Amino acid sequence: MTASTAIRRAYREVTTRREDQMSAQPDHAPVTPYAPAPGAPAELLAQLRADARADSWVPAFERQWAAALEESRRTFSLAALYEVVQEWQGLIASAPAVDAFVASGYDDTDFIDMAELRGRRR
């Protein structure tokens, strides 16, 4: 804002239409990306190691984490790391519900094999 504009506004003089349109404020609030806590990967790894499925989950997490680290080094972006943390947090959170569903003796007689379904569409 120029000095003359500031003086006119201070004395409540009429502003031009263009001055009214200009603003340093954004039109909308930017979306804040999800950022896990700095210790989230270590906490996840500890939770995975304590789980009964640690034999398969820990190596899978470590592979995904290593790939995300490499991508973040290459692209200078933390998005891949955030995605891995978010995905595994969801997996850990949903595991008890999945276990309860499997233990309930679900009926899978109407099960459709996804490979067969994909084969039909081709």
What's the total count of β strands? 0
Strand content of the residues, in percent? under 5%
User: How would you spell out the order of helices and strands?
Assistant: HHHHHH
Helix fraction bin: 55-70%
Report the end-to-end length measured between terminal Cα atoms.
Answer: 62 Å
Uncertain regions: pLDDT < 50 for 5+ in a row? none
Contiguous helical run count: 6
Averaged pLDDT: 80
How large, in whole angstroms, is the Cα Rg?
27 Å
What's the multimeric state?
A: single chain
Principal-axis shape = elongated
Structural class: mainly alpha
* Biggest β-sheet strands, sense, barrel: none
Region (Disordered): 1-36
Pfam family, one: DUF6247
Biased composition (Basic and acidic residues): 10-21
Provide an overview of this structure.
The protein has 122 residues and is mostly helical. Helix content is 65%, strand content 0%. It has a domain at 40-104.
Give the arrangement of secondary structure elements.
Blueprint: H1 3-10, H2 17-21, H3 40-50, H4 54-75, H5 79-103, H6 114-121
Biased composition (Basic and acidic residues): 10-21
Region (Disordered): 1-36
Pfam families: DUF6247
Descriptive labels:
0% strand; elongated; 122 residues; single chain
In brief:
The chain has six helices and no strands. The chain has 122 residues and is mainly α.
